[in-house]
Backbone:
């Protein structure tokens, strides 16, 4: 990019002068004098911080890449409009850009087309210059930034895509508008222990008024506000179309409604890959970026099926189908609605010449599409009686048998209809694929005016989850390792938790959002209301099952759904509760394997060679920063060194360097055998040096200075010469 940047800048400068300037001038009378006085793209070029390539569970005829793009530019662009001098002096932009190369071909150029889009709205900051007189007006600065962001989002964020064909005569319509992956139905139920935000002159006064914002891609919904309640109950349902999995996530932000500025109360990021694999997730999720609070969501994944039996009307008023409208083009639109009145040509005498000129030119048309009470608007095609829009729209359908799609073509300059059309969705049911791709005759228009559309109807279907699959549950919110809590009984029983199945598709690490794990909720909500400690017991982990028997007959113990209440098993002395890890691949890793904490030189109470638990580490070499990054995720099933309980922390050396100054250590977690750290450490060494070193990781008990207790709980050594550090690994 550094080498090519000056050439790219020259092309862009030419484009601004020759293409953009005339376009801006044609937009509006006041912009006729617009000229670019300075266009300089600067020395700093965009940087690609990381690339992720997907190989599993995608079509073999495509390549999918995610690029983390960061542009902190020193570009300068100035333009004069009549008296004003307007300018930009520096731009910051970062986000995750997905690049899809498809279809792959057997002859040159080997790739049919390139499709680009941002998965989420990119972060954008613009440093304005020379607009001081205009920007002193409050609100305009913010407005212009957000307007430009919306402008980018409208073109570059899902479901919008830019598709560039590389081979001649390539039909790219199906690449620009693929059928969505599915629909996520979010039941926003309730929250508890939210942070109190309302205060008056520093003194706490009253409770907060919480509401939630839910977002997938560019679509955002707002819940109702529950006044004066830190444990609000909403019981609302929202539905989102999901276009890309992995890639898109559900974002939930909670705010306290205030007359001046709403206060932030915590957020949640949920990986839709996990919800898609689990089908339904009904959990209390801990909120992040705040000190307390949990949110109860029920999430349902609805797949799109070509099956009419699923189209019966829903009693609760929820959607049963989705209609996808590919709006292509129109032909022979009338110049104005006087020219044709209900299809009969009648010459109208218009006395005013000025008006005549306006009515004689070709129309600038846009389309309004309506299903039920939702209307969507297309872009405007200027001065054409055969406009081409090339856009896709999705609508939720409650009853395919009775609802219809209303299409109205309007002229931008005069608020008049150039033609309308009504398509009953029951027509789609006559086609086995529930698809119509044709020209539709326009009413209230000329006799040879048509609109070309493709309509696809798909039923929404909640599939039964795979009983063999370990559910992600609360870990859909991109979290760390399994947590196994001992309940009752003093006996030490070891039952290694089942390894989570590696989900086929690794979720995108959102600028390391996947690595910022959320705090775990304490285990009290897992207890049944009657206090029995047998909540959430997948059938594998009931202690006392014979280890060897389990290894021989793995298929005899399918794990029960994580959130169903299990039966109490009174015969067993210890019942363990299991929280399952998210798929290891959410850290972009290899298939999981275990670093057992070695029991060398440790005096175990039982004297046998028992495993001392496990630690989860993520290790990779960051070439740009020239450093080895070690992420300590957490430990599980540690063996206590005393009855007093343990306060574990993790200490790391990069051997042979044992100097006290170069050691790294995590914070101490109090009274737990399953600590969760999610702390990151860096060793700044060259890759050649790191390859010769060994990572020495010890889990220790923080104890009083004069205490007799054993300090070391377990240790792991990793020979870095054997690992692919650029690719990295995450393992237990």
Residues:
């Amino acid at each position: 990019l550094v080498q090519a940047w000056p050439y790219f800048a020259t092309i862009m400068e030419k484009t601004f002068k020759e293409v953009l300037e005339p376009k801006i001038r044609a937009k509006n009378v006041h912009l006729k004098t617009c000229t670019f006085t300075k266009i300089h793209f600067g020395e700093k070029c965009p940087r690609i911080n990381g690339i992720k390539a997907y190989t599993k569970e995608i079509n073999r005829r495509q390549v999918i890449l995610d690029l983390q793009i960061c542009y902190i530019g020193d570009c300068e662009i100035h333009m004069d409009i009549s008296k004003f001098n307007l300018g930009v002096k520096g731009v910051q932009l970062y986000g995750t850009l997905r690049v899809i190369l498809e279809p792959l071909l057997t002859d040159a150029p080997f790739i049919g087309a390139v499709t680009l889009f941002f998965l989420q709205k990119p972060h954008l900051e613009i440093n304005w210059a020379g607009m001081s007189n205009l920007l002193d007006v409050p609100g305009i600065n913010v407005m212009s930034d957000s307007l430009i962001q919306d402008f980018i989002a409208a073109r570059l964020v899902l479901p919008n895509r830019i598709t560039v064909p590389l081979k001649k005569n390539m039909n790219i319509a199906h690449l620009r508008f693929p059928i969505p992956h599915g629909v996520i139905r979010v039941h926003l139920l309730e929250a508890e222990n939210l942070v109190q935000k309302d205060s008056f002159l520093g003194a706490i006064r009253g409770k907060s008024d919480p509401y939630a914002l839910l977002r997938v891609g560019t679509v955002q919904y707002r819940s109702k506000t529950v006044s004066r309640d830190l444990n609000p109950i909403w019981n609302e349902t929202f539905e989102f179309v999901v276009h890309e999995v992995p890639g898109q996530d559900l974002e939930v932000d909670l705010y306290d409604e205030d007359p001046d500025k709403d206060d932030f109360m915590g957020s949640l990021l949920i990986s839709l890959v996990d919800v898609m694999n689990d089908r339904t997730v009904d959990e209390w999720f801990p909120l992040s970026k705040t000190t307390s609070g949990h949110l109860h969501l029920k999430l349902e994944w609805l797949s799109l099926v070509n099956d009419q039996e699923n189209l019966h009307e829903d009693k609760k008023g929820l959607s049963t189908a989705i209609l996808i409208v590919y709006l292509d083009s129109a032909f022979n639109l009338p110049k104005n609605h006087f020219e044709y009145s209900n299809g009969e040509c009648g010459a109208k005498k218009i006395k005013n010449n000025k008006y005549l000129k306006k009515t004689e030119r070709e129309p600038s048309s846009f389309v309004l599409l309506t299903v039920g009470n939702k209307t969507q608007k297309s872009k405007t095609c200027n001065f054409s009686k055969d406009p081409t829009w090339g856009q896709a729209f999705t609508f939720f359908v409650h009853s395919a048998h009775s609802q219809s799609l209303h299409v109205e073509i309007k002229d931008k300059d005069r608020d008049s209809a150039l033609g309308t059309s009504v398509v009953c969705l029951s027509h789609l049911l006559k086609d086995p694929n529930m698809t119509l791709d044709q020209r539709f005759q326009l009413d209230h228009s000329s006799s040879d005016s048509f609109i070309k559309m493709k309509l696809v109807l798909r039923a929404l279907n909640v599939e039964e989850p795979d009983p063999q699959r370990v559910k992600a549950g609360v870990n859909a919110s991109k979290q760390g390792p399994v947590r196994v809590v001992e309940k009752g009984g003093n006996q030490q029983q070891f039952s290694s938790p089942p390894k989570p199945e590696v989900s086929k598709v690794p979720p995108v690490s959102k600028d390391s959002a996947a690595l910022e794990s959320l705090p775990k909720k304490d285990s009290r909500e897992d207890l049944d209301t009657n206090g029995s400690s047998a909540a959430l017991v997948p059938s594998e982990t009931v202690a006392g099952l014979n280890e060897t028997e389990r290894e021989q007959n793995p298929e005899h113990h399918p794990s029960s759904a994580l959130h169903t209440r299990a039966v109490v098993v009174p015969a067993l002395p210890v019942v363990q509760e299991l929280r399952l890890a998210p798929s290891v691949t959410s850290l972009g890793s290899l298939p999981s394997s275990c670093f057992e904490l070695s029991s060398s030189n440790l005096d175990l109470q039982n004297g046998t060679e028992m495993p001392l638990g496990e630690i989860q580490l993520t290790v990779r070499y960051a070439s740009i920063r020239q450093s080895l990054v070690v992420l300590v995720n957490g430990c599980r099933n540690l063996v206590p060194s005393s009855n007093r309980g343990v306060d574990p922390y993790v200490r790391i050396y990069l051997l042979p360097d044992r100097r006290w100054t170069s050691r790294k250590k995590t914070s101490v977690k109090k009274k737990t055998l399953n600590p969760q750290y999610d702390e990151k450490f860096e060793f700044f060494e060259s890759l050649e040096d790191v390859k010769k070193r060994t990572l020495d990781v010890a889990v220790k008990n923080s104890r009083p200075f004069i205490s007799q207790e054993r300090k070391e709980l377990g240790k792991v050594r990793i020979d870095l010469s054997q690992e692919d550090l650029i690719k990295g690994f995450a393992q237990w």
